[in-house]
Amino acid sequence: MKIGFAQLNSTVGDLPGNHRRILDAYRQLVAQGADLVLTPELAITGYPPQDLVFKSRFVPDNLAILEALHGEVGDVPLIVGYVDFNLGSGKPFHNAAALLQRGEPIRKFFKSLLPTYDVFDEARYFESALNVSPVEIAGRKIGITICEDIWTEKYLPRRLYGSSPVELLLKQGAEILLNLSASPFGLGKVHRRREMLAAIASEAKVPVFYCNAIGGNDQLVFDGNSMAIASDGTLLGKLDSFKEELRIIDSDTPALHPDPGFQSEPEELHDALVLGLRDYLHKCGFHSAVLGLSGGIDSAVTACIAAEALGAQNVLGVTMPTEFSSRGSIDDSLLLAKNLGIGFREISIQNSFTTFKEQFTDIFAGVKEDVTEENMQPRLRGMTLMAISNKFGHLVLSTGNKSELAVGYCTLYGDMCGGLAVISDVPKTLVYELAEWINRDRELIPRNTIEKPPSAELKPDQLDQDTLPPYEILDPILQLYVEEQRSVLDIVARGYDEKTVRWVQRRVDLNEYKRAQAVPGLKITTRAFGVGRKMPIAQRFVE
To answer: Which residues are identified as catalytic?
Structure first.
């Protein structure tokens, strides 16, 4: 069977636009000889629609699109994801797939396993399928599954479900498994998917066709990497990463030789951030971006991603020095802007900083200058960028990394302000790896920016490591504490200094209030702050 993959970038809530995308893809794949066309999960509504489903017209309008598609398809079946009403007891909706074919009634299939962990909250909206069964298409028994339905117990964080839709379909004679998916990107996840699908196919002795979404929807990035696996577990074909693509893969085609493999970690990280930024900006109606350039590694990497995502002509970098800014940092910012071809402005905030401090002369009399005065500088910078945003319609990009956000080494209403935090889920050590990858062919990021010790430059001779542990120590501790949720004692048992671990733990816990006020950030790790981690602010649990 020749399966046409429609690896599409749906926009959440753009029902007419998604309709056109699906129909155009269907017609192209049929013209190329597809026997069946497969779309990602919830292709009509976009994923995740969240509380849009509760709007009175949203689900009816998506059903109207489904009916329109039914009238537009021909003899070649289309399997498309959508939201349906639950006519029985339980939650009001189903996460659904429909089989559309000329002259046949719409055949509907509902998702069985509803993830409610990490970034997922499907049990808030959807009711599970009461039963599953294969459907006959062109004389073949086809098992239709939706995303989580195909994730076996071995590849989930723990035993979550009491049944396996795949096993039930196979027991009923399914000869081919299809999966409509909207699986968000995470570092290393593509390999896990491939391993899981290969295991299912080889154990069941049936081919598996997996169609994943691509695109950025708010903080989530979907990477595509749709694939077809032969009944012996070998790869029949794989679609591109982070790109819309239409491709036909035949279930009877010999396995690929050699295997095309996957991207390196820095490359897939770069492409995920580029796609996430581009889609966030365009889907929110912006056309350009502005960011502060400090001469440091974080703003440099963010600027490179922005230039790649939006085009250099649509990015403005602004350096905003004070008396504590080194000439080298200003020059590095200018050189970066020239290398990238982005717009550049130097706006000194020294006079504003001096004036701002003077208004506190009386109330601060007799009190030594401290972090209060330091934080006035990023707040003035944030206000400057927001003024430029208001005047010219640019989206402000915040440039802080995950390591800083974790321990609160950032200023509310200062460097944390903006519309999107591009690298807020990227640890500092990985920022350096990404910078080296960006410079793989030619020097875009000045070498001095990469090699100099990181500094906020808010007071004389300031370095990050005056306040923080070295990043090569801090980041592994954060990985264990935040992403793997290990206890302090577990982390210390791995050889880390107990005093350092406890300092990191307390800083993470005490700065939840800052992260609650942070701008949305693109998720690329297994556990991102915000969308993937929900912690109380007012709490007193201490290990």
So the answer is: 41, 111, 147
In a domain, 111, yes or no: yes
Does 538 reside within a domain?
no
pLDDT at 279: 97
Long-range own/partner contacts, residues 152-159 (CB < 8 A, 24 or more apart): 152/196, 152/199, 152/200, 154/196, 154/199, 155/192, 155/195, 155/196, 157/117
Per-residue pLDDT of 253-286, as tens digits, reads 777 766 667 788 999 999 999 999 999 999 999 9
pTM of the entire predicted model: 0.93
pLDDT digits (tens, 9 = 90+) for 455-511: 776 777 767 777 889 999 999 999 999 999 999 999 999 999 999 999 999 999 999
Tokens of 289: 């971006």
- 69 vs 85, 86, 330, CA distance in Å? 18, 21, 56
**Is residue 515 very low, low, confident or very high in pLDDT (cuts 50, 70, 90)?**
very high
Handedness of CA 467, 470, 473, 474 (dihedral sign): positive
CA-based R_g, the chain, Å: 25
Total domains present in the chain = 2
Residue 266 within any structural domain of the chain: no
What's the token pair of residue 412?
């509310």
Q: Which of the 8 DSSP states describes residue 126?
A: B
User: Which domain covers residue 386, as residue numbers?
Assistant: 273-464
Concatenated DSSP letters for 502-534?
HHHHHHHHHTHHHHHTSPPB---SSS-TBTTB-
CA geometry: angle at 436 spanning 338 and 412, to 5°? Answer: 75
Last residue of a domain, one of 225, 253, 281: 253
**What does the pLDDT average to over 398-407?**
95
- For residue 309, what are the CA distances in angstroms to 183, 240, 285? 22, 17, 15
Q: Are 293 and 300 in contact (CB under 8 A)?
A: yes
327-332 long-range Cβ contacts below 8 angstroms, 24+ apart: 328/295, 328/448, 328/452, 329/294, 329/295, 329/296, 329/457, 330/295, 331/295, 332/295, 332/300, 332/446, 332/448, 332/449
Kindly indicate the confidence band of residue 178, based on its pLDDT and cuts at 50, 70 and 90.
very high
Identify whether residues 29 and 83 lie together within a single domain: yes
Does residue 113 sit in the same domain as residue 69? yes
pLDDT attached to residue 467: 82
Does one domain contain both 101 and 150? yes
Domain check: are 282 and 406 in the same one? yes
DSSP per-residue letters across 34-90: -SEEE--TTTTT-S--GGGGGSTTHHHHHHHHHHHHHHH--SS-EEEEEEEE--SSS
What's 375's domain CATH number?
Answer: 3.40.50.620
- Same domain flag for 247 and 293: no
Are the CB atoms for 263 and 223 separated by under 8 Å?
Answer: no
Containing 500, the helix (H) or strand (E) segment is helix 498-510
Residues 240 and 172 in one domain: yes
Please write the tens of the pLDDT for every residue from 295-345.
Answer: 999 999 999 999 999 999 999 999 999 998 888 889 999 999 999 999 999
Indicate the pairing of strand 208-212 with strand 176-181.
parallel
CATH of the domain at 162: 3.60.110.10
Examine the fold and report which residue of 464, 499, 522 is the final residue of a domain before the chain moves on.
464
